[in-house]
Specification:
Layout: E1 2-4, E2 7-11, E3 17-20, E4 28-32, H1 34-39, H2 41-47, E5 64-68, E6 82-86, H3 95-104, E7 108-112, H4 120-129, H5 136-143, E8 144-148, E9 155-160, H6 163-173, E10 184-191, H7 196-205, E11 207-212, E12 218-220, H8 224-236, H9 239-252, E13 254-259, H10 262-274, E14 278-282, E15 296-301, H11 302-305, E16 316-319, H12 326-333, E17 345-352, H13 356-366, H14 373-384
Parallel strand pairs: 4-5, 4-6, 6-7, 10-17, 13-15, 13-16, 14-15, 16-17
Antiparallel strand pairs: 1-2, 2-3, 8-9, 11-12
Length: about 400
């Protein structure tokens, strides 16, 4: 028998199903994405259980609050309630994770996520919330071996110890949702051309070819991150990517396009208008609905729309540029891979190139890791077979 908010459910000694409703209701708080809150997806789910954000029509006057993760700190002092944390945002140990832990210690709760974590540190806030560890320091002391970079400035996780304990903790909290997935995903790498001469010049001279200094000359890159941004832009603005996109839209008719940067959005907007293709957007500024008139293109920024919405009218996603995050890419793929999709074959076109930046990002994602500037430096040295760090001057 399981007790939840003074109610019981489960089976008795004879295996008979037993359920006892709580003697009094408790407030229900649903913390979800801003998009799900604004599109009222949870209102539909609540209606199936005779619940509503309108207390006057909610079952037994149950109070229901739906809000986004951005506002989770507003509920840090709530007690004796039930929380549903949807599309979990408690990876790491930032404000959201700390607030989640504080709430979990004074309320009943459940965390919903199809991608709970790629590494043990991703599970750390949930382990702490379940009482397995007192705090971050306790977790790190028992399971994490750190190492520092060559200059001794930035620590990073080298490896984990006592993995058997971590596996036991993980298995005790995860719920295996068994279902038969009928869809067949097809991941297709699409290699696109780019300005190789310009790319090599930036690699060699470390200049920002898209900005000019006071004398009207190309400005020198200020740090590693700027060099990488310039290289990514050189690759992304290739006209060949638009040619490849046109072929895919002609073949499939309805295409969701994920992108990273604002300049990519500008390119895609202009291309859609030039090709007379209906398009709409989901990003930090616009939250538009999916188009209806074919052919159409739905332009989605990774950070704003990689999760929290579904599409069952389309079978194709184009990743116009690669995300830095394996987990984010997986979540983006899930936008069309739904149980109620009418399609069996789903197509994912990953636009990439033979450039060093795209190759390194792809390698990182294949290892299910997050890409960062330091990975770029290490891989660059391997590719060029260099003894010296090509970016040493940036962190002297």
């Amino acid at each position: 028998m399981t007790k939840v908010c003074d109610g019981y459910y489960g089976r008795d000694e004879k295996g008979k199903a037993v359920q006892e409703m709580p003697k009094q209701t408790v407030p229900l708080y649903i913390i979800t994405t801003a998009r799900k809150r604004d599109t009222h997806e949870w209102d539909i789910e609540l209606a199936r259980w005779c619940l509503s954000i309108n207390k006057n029509v909610s079952w037994l006057g149950t109070e229901v609050v739906i809000d986004s993760w951005n506002n989770i700190e507003k509920y840090a002092d709530v007690t004796n309630a039930f929380f549903i944390f949807d599309e979990q945002r408690v990876v790491g140990y930032g404000k959201w994770a700390k607030t989640f832990i504080k709430i979990s210690r004074r309320n009943k709760w459940i965390l919903l996520s199809a991608t709970p974590g790629d590494s043990w540190v991703d599970y750390m806030p949930v382990f702490i919330a379940n009482g397995f560890y007192k705090h971050k320091t306790d977790f790190f002391d028992k399971h994490v071996v750190m190492k520092w970079d060559q200059r001794g400035n930035y620590p990073k996780i080298e490896r984990y110890v006592n993995d058997a304990v971590l596996i036991a903790h993980r298995d005790s909290i995860l719920i295996d949702m068994k279902f038969s997935r009928l869809t067949i995903p097809h991941h297709i790498d699409v290699y696109c051309d780019y300005d190789i001469a310009l790319y090599k010049r930036v690699e060699k001279e470390r200049v920002n070819v898209f900005e000019l200094d006071e004398r009207g000359r190309e400005a020198p890159a200020s740090d590693i991150a700027e060099v990488i941004r310039v290289l990514r832009k050189i690759v992304a603005i290739s006209e060949d990517r638009l040619t490849k996109l046109k072929d895919i839209v002609d073949e499939h008719g309805k295409v969701i396009v994920f992108y990273n940067f604002n300049y990519e959005l500008d390119i895609l907007r202009q291309w859609c208008e030039r090709m007379d293709i209906v398009y709409s957007e989901w990003n930090g500024n616009k939250h538009e609905a999916l188009p209806e008139e074919e052919p159409w293109v739905y332009l989605v920024q990774y950070s704003a729309g990689a999760e929290g919405w579904n599409c069952t009218t389309c079978d194709t996603i184009v990743f116009y540029s690669q995300s830095y995050s394996y987990k984010q890419t997986e979540q983006a793929c899930g936008r069309i891979d739904r149980l109620n999709t009418p399609f069996t074959d789903l197509y994912y076109y990953h636009f990439t190139s033979k450039s060093s930046i795209d190759i390194i990002i792809k390698k990182t994602l294949n290892r299910k890791e997050e890409f960062n500037d330091w990975k770029m430096v290490r891989e660059w040295k391997k590719q060029k077979d260099l003894d010296e760090d090509p970016f040493a001057k940036y962190y002297e």
